[in-house]
Amino acid sequence: MARLRPARTFRDSNSQAWARYSLRKPRKNYIKAMPRNHIQVFKTGTDKSSFDLSMTLNADRYMQLRSNSIESAREAANKYLASLLPENYLLRVLIYPHNVIREHKLGGFAGADRTSRGMSMAFGKPIAVAARIKKDQPIMLVKTTSANRAAAHEALRKASTKLSGKCKIRVI
């Protein structure tokens, strides 16, 4: 099984965004096959009109997050909220990963010069999709009652540990 590279290798992106994938003209694409999005559900919990507290998890700086890290953050927050506040919260993921991350795989073994072509034509193969996030852009939203403020804050804190950048929790 192939291992994923660490998130720090893709967190900062100074390159051009690649998201060109067309179903109508597949031969004109830069990306022949789109990697799958790992986010399963974007909205969990129940939406009630009695919720008076909204908290968001905002990016502290510009970063790029892979879809599997966003999904693990959502799972961590949802598991914590579901155990403490069943049917008394709403959790939403506010970003969608469009950007395709490419990787040029090189052989790191003896005789690799015969099997790989080095960095010539190193466009890379698509391996994952990511979301490009600006500074202070909200990533997740939790709605609940003001009595459950500590639980919502802790859930967003647990979610931020799964992401590869620094995040802030804001009350709206």
Would you mind describing this structure in some detail?
It is a single chain. By secondary structure, this protein is α+β, with helices and mostly antiparallel strands. The chain is built from four helices and eight strands. The strands form two sheets. It has a five-stranded antiparallel sheet with strand order 1-4-7-2-8, covered by helices on one side. The protein starts with 7 loop residues before the first helix and ends with a strand. The model has no long low-confidence stretch (mean pLDDT 85).
Q: What are the SSEs and their pairings?
A:
Blueprint lengths: L7 H4 L31 E3 L7 E7 L3 E4 H18 L5 E4 L5 E5 L8 H4 L9 E9 L4 E7 L4 H12 L6 E5 L1
Antiparallel strand pairs: 1-4, 2-7, 2-8, 3-6, 4-7, 5-6
Task: Give a quick set of tags describing it.
single chain, 172 residues, alpha+beta, Aldehyde Oxidoreductase, domain 3, five-stranded antiparallel β-sheet, 8 strands, elongated
- Widest sheet: strand order? 1-4-7-2-8
CATH level-4 homologous superfamily of one domain: Ribosomal protein L16/L10
The proportion of strand residues reads: 25-35%
User: Which word captures the global form?
Assistant: elongated
What letter string, H or E per element, gives the SSE order?
A: HEEEHEEHEEHE
Q: Name the helicity range.
A: 10-25%
Which blocks of ≥5 consecutive residues have pLDDT under 50? Answer: none
Termini Cα gap: 43 Å
The biggest beta sheet is recorded as:
5 strands, antiparallel
Provide the gyration radius in Å: 19 Å
CATH architecture of one domain: Alpha-Beta Complex
